[in-house]
Amino acid sequence: MKTAAEEIAELKQARNAVILAHNYERPEVQDIADFTGDSLELARKAASTEADTIVFCGVYFMAETAAILNPGKTVLIPDETAGCPMADMITGEQLRALKAKHPGAAAVCYVNSTAEVKAECDICVTSGNAERVMATFPKDREIIFVPDQHLGSHIASRLGVSYILWPGYCPTHAQLTAKQIEAARAAHPGAPVLVHPECRREVRDAADERLSTGGMCAFARTSPLNEFIVGTETGILHRLRQENPGKTFWPAADLVCPNMKKTTLEKVRDCLRDMSPAVAVPKETAVRAKRAIDAMLAI
Ligand code: 13P
Ligand code: SF4
Question: Which CATH number is 96's domain given?
């Protein structure tokens, strides 16, 4: 009998498909992916692929972004209930109301947002490029930043500006405390603390580096140090350990995004077999959302 991984390999060829996986996915899902990365790296891969079908192992907004970038292709998501609670913390209608209160302000969204919200924005950012993108705005420009208050306030303080923030947050990263960082430091003295900018301010302040998941992988790869404390979803430990066999990675806490864990090998196989569930974005929304994503990818 064939394993699920073998069946996936056969179906992938038959469908001329590429499998993209986020750094938080289960180890066995990362292992069958053609490419594993952060939101920005995955969006770039999705924009440049020549495959007919994209299987997106991640949460819904990521697959939606791939679909917006590839109107002619089929984008499959192995479990369509894998949402991002932060992305669902603001609706298009709420953003329109906020924009009406601040006419003239630029609207910027974190890529962790729905297509409907992206369609209302001038540009979007990921944690991997937010500082670079936001630095392109004049310092005195009024800016609405949604939905992540933590990434927004992190970038604002890096650039010495302030934004009109939406009170969204990631329920997984919100669990991490400065006390846990201190305890991890005491247990592993000398190991730098890497946290995701979605963490709360007290946690960001207690860390040494605030990095996207791709940034953490690059930091670990190029650092001369041998031990690292990692303050993000623990799925990333698989990739960090595989890419750096001589180095040690300690989770700052047991942070799990339940939605990232919904994707299993069996669901990847089934979606390739059935060519479903596929992500569909209404055309008018997709065209407007694509402008914000393209503006980001151009920087
Ligand atoms: P990255 O873009 O850093 O991979 O982050 C995505 C995400 O959802 C973090 O919670
Ligand atoms: Fe959303 Fe947080 Fe999960 Fe990332 S870790 S997908 S921000 S809920």
Answer: 3.40.50.10800
